[in-house]
Amino acid sequence: MKDTDVIILCGGLGKRLRPVVSDRPKSLARINKTAFLDILIGYLLSFGFKRFILCCGYMGDLIREHYNKASCASKIVFSQETKLLGTGWALKNSRRLIRSNPFLVLNGDSFLKLNLRNFYKFHLQKNAILSIALSSPKPDQNSGVVTLDNKKRIIEFNEKIKPARKTYCSAGIYFMDQKIFKFMGKRKVFSLEYDLFPTLTNKYSYGYYCKNSFIDIGTPQNLMKAEEFLKHV
Q: Which of 15, 73, 97, 171 is 20 to 30 A away from residue 87, measured at CA?
């Protein structure tokens, strides 16, 4: 697992967060005086990951500047978008930089305390093209809603709908096989959550449940909650 590439999607506009964070991309928002992206990468380093591909878009130059100055025990490379064409294109655009199979993909604005070694083993055992880390749903959760069968296969994926009974929430952490790029076609504007993941249900994708709750920092309210949530990470 230590040679597995980590792709972090950190190119979003962060519009909801701008009332309190307007001078930097949301992945660099300060949590207890530390950039959120530093907290996320620090957690990943604890599992032995060493190579990170940062998919940058809005204010991407500030992310480059931040890590060009930093002393980091890892290799960080950048995949820059010239236009914001969705999370699907952001990943597709980084393909030329990805060396490992499988590889890990994370949203750059959310955090789940998850045993990534066990998640990695799960992905390999299922021979999945896509494995999604899941947590229990909350009424105010702003994420994908997932339904599983008894083999942990994802039979339904719906982005940003109200969770129902016996469903789970996507935590924005994915192990992917290189075969996933075959399902992207030639599209240049598309979303992983809205356009790709629903096409992989019932056959190619599996869900790995973690009882821990996760947090995204995409709103001023959640940014405040993250101060306590991430204090002991």
A: 73
